[in-house]
Amino acid sequence: MSERKIGLAFSSGGARGTAHIGVLKVLEENGIVPDVIAGSSIGAQIGAAYAAGVPIDEMEVYWRSSSWKRVAKTLFPTIPWSGWSSGRKVTRVLRDLFGERRIEDLSIPYAAVATDLETGEALPITSGPIARAVRASLSVPGLFVPVWIDGHLLIDGGVTDPLPVDVVRFLGADVVIAVDVLVEPAEVKLSGIPAPPSGKILGIINGGSSGKNERRFYPSVFSVLFQMSTVFQKRVLNLLLETDPPDVLIRPDFSADPPCYSDAAGGIEAGEEAARRALPAIRHALSQA
Question: What digits encode the pLDDT tens for the residues 2-21?
Answer without folding.
Answer: 578 999 999 998 889 999 99
